[in-house]
């Protein structure tokens, strides 16, 4: 009662350290300096001490790890210096006109800068929109994740495809699976997998040379801003409620159908350089048995390459040195380019959109597996060969050179748009490789300039949306190539990883693409699958399976005309009696001569009787 004011005004007394009392016979000054600290145990350099002390393997490993961490800190600073000062800069991107090619069809100074907050906000809106469009009315939250809602939806759809709403059902019925030649996609022999992590092949959904074409429409542009905002709806970027569907376009089951929609083609590039354990490097490499120089386990500052790597992440030891077989790798890349072009030609696409396919993360750290590619010139030669194969594929399939016989049938108008980003040294290097390849091929095939359009710092998804909207009367005349993940189309786009990967970001900006990939994957995580799982899924939803070997350079209309002619030959509208060889034709009254056509033996008998 009377203590309240006391506790509010009083302060605790300051504590003073206890004073040490001097020992008898000791002065006060000596008492302050009498406390002595023993030197560190390992600071002594005496010979006897180093011989007496021994360390366990665990202690030695800990000391080595600490030393690697210290060297790693120094390496990080060295990487920074190399990147900003010592690394040879690419300078400005090569202008196509200076190289001898047509000018840019479109050129932007840079790509939009998107904050992670906006990127993941759009991702969350897309997740909610996907489950709503598939018939799920539950609001996603930390207690109800996208994976849980997707699992419930797939269990219901697995009973019957009719469980889907009309929009997704119509979309899935238009999916095309193009079967590639999978004979060369063989397992790697076990005897050459020493020291490597062998991936489970049964977890792959997409075949090595398969292409999946899905009709989609974009919801967000390159800056993650809403492309369409319908009346009386909220913006997709700033939804007032988690279930807001603002910004989403009308579904394909509406009166407009597929107007404004375009194709997205999923195809997977070989992963030979994403990390030191890249999934496909083993299949595209050969063992170097006579290795004169031992493989380095830590990075050194090389005179041929200024790029350093983290010292604490040692190269895998205990495995033989292997070298990339460029010819095999380039041959498969060329087949992937041609498969995508053949699929687009079959779909009667007028505008095909490509990007530096397989030249990003899947090639970035190839030097960890083959140290020859620490040399920038060696890496650039490989990239140039990849670009050359695209130009060869376009020239052979779309713009044949003079001297080659062209087919008499009328080809659909075809334009190839190559989107090249120039935001860092790696992307500039890729840009220059494609510009040089296009200019070199145009000297042999001038028609290439009429077909290929180079676009600098142009977003491929936004370009596909704009081209699709420019001609609404002819839907699905635009196709965009996507570098897909073989285990899951879209990979884990609904999570926070891969902020800049094309596969994840295309899905985050298109709900129709994300829902189709969910139904194609039929799961949200990789799992063991049958070889024919993808084909069975496409047929389950009413899609089409096409053999690429039978549609080389042909459109769907061409094949339909061939099928119509074949049916007319087999079962014509006016049935007639087939005329056998050697038989007389019908007379006007419809009666046939009773004399039968002689067989080979009868002919011999008749000849013999005639001579007699």
UniProtKB/TrEMBL annotation:
<feature type="region of interest" description="Disordered">
    <location>
        <begin position="1"/>
        <end position="61"/>
    </location>
</feature>
<feature type="compositionally biased region" description="Polar residues">
    <location>
        <begin position="30"/>
        <end position="47"/>
    </location>
</feature>
<feature type="region of interest" description="Disordered">
    <location>
        <begin position="570"/>
        <end position="612"/>
    </location>
</feature>
<feature type="compositionally biased region" description="Basic and acidic residues">
    <location>
        <begin position="289"/>
        <end position="299"/>
    </location>
</feature>
<protein>
    <submittedName>
        <fullName>Protein HID1</fullName>
    </submittedName>
</protein>
<feature type="compositionally biased region" description="Basic and acidic residues">
    <location>
        <begin position="599"/>
        <end position="612"/>
    </location>
</feature>
<feature type="region of interest" description="Disordered">
    <location>
        <begin position="87"/>
        <end position="112"/>
    </location>
</feature>
<feature type="region of interest" description="Disordered">
    <location>
        <begin position="289"/>
        <end position="320"/>
    </location>
</feature>
């Amino acid at each position: 009662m009377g203590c309240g004011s006391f506790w509010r005004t009083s302060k605790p007394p300051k504590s003073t350290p206890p004073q040490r009392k001097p020992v008898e016979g000791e002065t006060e000054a000596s008492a302050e300096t009498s406390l002595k600290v023993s030197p560190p145990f390992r600071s002594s350099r005496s010979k006897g001490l180093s011989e007496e002390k021994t360390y366990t393997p665990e202690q030695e490993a800990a000391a080595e790890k600490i030393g690697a961490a210290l060297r790693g800190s120094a390496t990080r600073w060295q990487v920074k210096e190399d990147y900003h000062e010592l690394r040879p800069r690419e300078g400005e991107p090569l202008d196509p006109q200076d190289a001898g090619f047509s000018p840019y069809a479109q050129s932007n100074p840079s790509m939009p800068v998107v904050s992670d907050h906006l990127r993941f906000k759009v991702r969350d809106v897309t997740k909610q929109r996907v489950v709503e469009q598939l018939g799920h009315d539950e609001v996603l939250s930390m207690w109800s994740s996208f994976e849980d809602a997707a699992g419930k939806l797939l269990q219901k759809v697995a009973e019957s495809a009719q469980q889907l709403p009309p929009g997704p059902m119509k979309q899935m019925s238009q999916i095309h699976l193009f079967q590639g030649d999978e004979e060369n996609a063989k397992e790697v022999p076990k005897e050459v997998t020493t020291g490597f992590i062998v991936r489970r092949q049964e977890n792959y959904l997409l075949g090595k040379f398969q292409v999946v074409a899905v009709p989609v429409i974009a919801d967000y542009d390159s800056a993650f801003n809403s492309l369409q905002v319908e009346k009386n709806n909220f913006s997709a970027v700033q939804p007032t409620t988690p279930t807001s569907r603002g910004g989403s376009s009308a579904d394909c089951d509406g009166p407009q159908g597929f107007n404004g929609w375009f194709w997205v083609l999923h195809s997977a590039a070989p992963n030979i350089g994403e990390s030191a354990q890249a999934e496909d490097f083993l299949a595209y490499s050969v063992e170097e048995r006579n290795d004169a120089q031992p493989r380095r386990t830590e990075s050194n500052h090389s005179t041929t390459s200024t790029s350093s790597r983290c010292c604490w992440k040692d190269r895998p030891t205990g495995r033989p040195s292997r070298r990339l077989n460029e010819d095999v790798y380039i041959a498969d890349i060329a087949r992937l380019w041609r498969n995508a072009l053949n699929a687009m030609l079959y779909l009667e696409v007028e505008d095909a959109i490509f990007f530096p396919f397989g030249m990003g993360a899947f090639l970035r750290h190839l030097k960890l597996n083959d140290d020859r590619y620490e040399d920038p010139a060696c890496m650039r030669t490989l990239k140039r060969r990849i670009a050359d194969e695209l130009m060869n594929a376009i020239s052979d399939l779309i713009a044949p050179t003079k001297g080659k016989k062209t087919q008499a049938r009328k080809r659909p108008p075809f334009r190839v748009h190559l989107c090249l980003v120039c935001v860092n040294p790696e992307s500039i290097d890729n840009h220059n490789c494609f510009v040089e390849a296009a200019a070199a091929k145009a000297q042999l095939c001038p028609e290439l300039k009429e077909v290929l359009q180079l676009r600098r710092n142009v977003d491929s998804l936004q370009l596909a949306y704009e081209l699709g909207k420019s001609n609404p009367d002819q839907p699905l005349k635009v196709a965009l190539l996507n570098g897909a993940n073989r285990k899951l189309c879209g990979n884990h786009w609904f999570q926070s990883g891969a902020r800049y990967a094309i596969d994840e970001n295309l899905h985050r900006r298109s709900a129709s693409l994300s829902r189709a990939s969910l139904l194609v994957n039929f799961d949200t995580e990789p799992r063991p699958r049958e070889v024919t799982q993808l084909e069975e899924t496409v047929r389950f939803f009413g899609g089409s399976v096409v053999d690429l070997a039978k549609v080389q350079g042909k459109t769907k209309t061409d094949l339909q005309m061939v099928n119509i002619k074949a049916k007319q030959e087999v079962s014509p509208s006016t049935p007639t009696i087939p005329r056998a060889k050697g038989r007389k034709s019908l007379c006007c009254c419809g009666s046939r001569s009773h004399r039968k056509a002689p067989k080979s033996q009868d002919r011999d008998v008749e000849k013999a009787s005639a001579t007699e």
